[in-house]
Amino acid sequence: MSTMLGCRFGGVLEGSVFGLRGAVWRRVFSPPRGLCRAAFSTSTPEGSDQSASSVESSGPVPQNASETSRIGTLWDREPGGGSPTSAAVVDAILQRAQFETEALSLAGGTTGEARRRQEQARIENQIRRIMHEELPPHCRLEARDVVWVSDDLCFVGVGLLTNFAGFRYAMSRRLYRARRVAAVRDIFDRNTKDRATLQDVFKIVTDDVAAMLTSIQEPPQARLVNDYMLPANLTPLPSRQHSASSSLDAAGQENAAPTVAEQTPNDADLMTDAARFLSDQSGPLNTPHMGEFILGRHDVDFVEYLHELGIRIVPVENKTELDQMEPATIPIQQSTNHLLMVAPTAFEPNLYAAHDNYFMHDPSAVVAGLKHQPDDAEQTTSTTGAQDKLVSIRRQVLNEFAQLYYQIVQKIGARVHLFTHDKYHDAPDSVFPNNWFSTHTDLEVGECTLVLYPMKSPNRRRERRPEFLSRLHSFRRYTHVYDLTREEVSKTPRYLEGTGSLVLDRPHRTAYMAISERSDQKLARTWARVMGYEVIPFHATDGHGRPIYHTNVMMCIGTHVAVFCAESVEDSRERALILDRLRSTGHEVVTITREQMCHFCGNVLEIESRYGRPVMAMSTGAYHAFTPEQRQVLREHLDDLVHADIRTIEVVGGGGVRCSIAELM
């Protein structure tokens, strides 16, 4: 795992690609653990291709190889060689280089297990000492109700064994040694046998991963959180007379911990404290009964609270599984709860893309006569028939997209970073953001990594807008950037369009790719070598023998189930290789026909639900095109099937639900 709280959107790492002003995204990508550094500047020489049915894997790279692509920054190019938005991107990022977020969009990294154990033990020992002393009347504290994460966050269970009076008393003494304290309130459960303390139901494994019993994720056993913050000018550490740990003298030397007599107020002081803490029920939220801590939000669902912090939830069934969860046993996630989407606010058919995307239905008639029209053409009364049709299409696709968005946010419980676009962006396919970038966790590839991909259509390259890159930068997660966009301006351009070209089995580091104009086999090999993946290339065609433009329209991989259009892979050896690999990695395969593929049954996506369980998102057309038996197989491996009617986006845009969602791992 990463070495700092903030690798995942918490702070800037010195020397990282997301550096401060003057060094923004300047570091050349260093290899994930176990990868050959030579892979970052070289590739297999010309003429050394393996057959398309073979497995391309990470391995040693010949010393005499050459490679036009490289890893580095999106903007570190020769003058005139960058994208049209390069200067704007640099300016935007520089302006935000020192931007700090208080409420993290996503979390990440690990403070270090040794530090976590040390602080946890220190707090627990102090609580046990206090428990043996004379607590104020009605106060109860329990050491196992504390889960310390970092100097910035501590969870405290409040319920059966630690009551609210005891919690207030501990807060007044800054016992929990954190600037932010989340009181995890057990109000409705009160199970003395199995779920008496917070540590019985919840465990922080790393800074961005928590294990939680499934039994407390949903009502009526669900926990509610009150969020308390300490003002920035105050230290979260207890005062000396209230500390059960060692302290520093004026010279900075460590002193022995004060004795119980030295650190404990006398009975009269305790009773005065009790009278103040237990009777003060009025006044502002930062009244003395909570010390200097200020109540922010309250009664927030615990699962929702963790998602807002960006903490991944790994559901476990019992206390044994909870105790056994360690950093080394965290499963690599196939899907995520954090997504990026772009509403089609300036949608129109993309003639560039129509050249090889045969899922689009004759876009030329729709865009005829649209050139040289003002941005507000849809407000005029003298529009052409094509413009009227485009206005109607835009309204329809926005309505469809809204249905998809709310299904994902409300029914699945995913957290979506939602953007829009305008006509002046000249990026009509912005609704399909999964092609120009992908993200990867440190568990998956060794470092938190952002990959930027070369796009075939010139107007699709404009989708890499400053605000997108600035948002990714502000997360403070992706310490490494793998930039392949230089391939777009090379003498012999090559393309690899993200998770459209590469369908990823992340836990097994396998990428499946249908070879096409948008999916270059040699470039995929280089990508695989750098990322520590195997790539399985193959040839896939539609019913007219034309290449499938993107792999993700005919194939999807979930955690335990896969959808695959075997009929489109006519080479029996390639087909057998794919099926064998999918089954050997524990996937049950739902094979679909070319007709089902045309209904976007392959363009579906597994998303992690609010509770950490897999859900499959698809279009309504795809849902009904699956047979009842196929839907049953999917349900056996998924928590739910969620669908929305996006037929206009599919027919006019040539992409489905999976194309409309980019994953933020």
UniProtKB/TrEMBL annotation:
Residues 40-71, 236-248 have a biased composition (Polar residues). Gene3D superfamilies: L-arginine/glycine Amidinotransferase, Chain A (3.75.10.10). Residues 40-84, 236-266 are annotated as: Disordered. It holds the Pfam family DDAH_eukar. InterPro entries: Amdntrnsf_FN0238 (IPR014541). PANTHER family: AMIDINOTRANSFERASE. This is Amidinotransferase. It comes from Cyanidioschyzon merolae (strain NIES-3377 / 10D) (Unicellular red alga). The lineage of its organism: Eukaryota, Rhodophyta, Bangiophyceae, Cyanidiales, Cyanidiaceae.
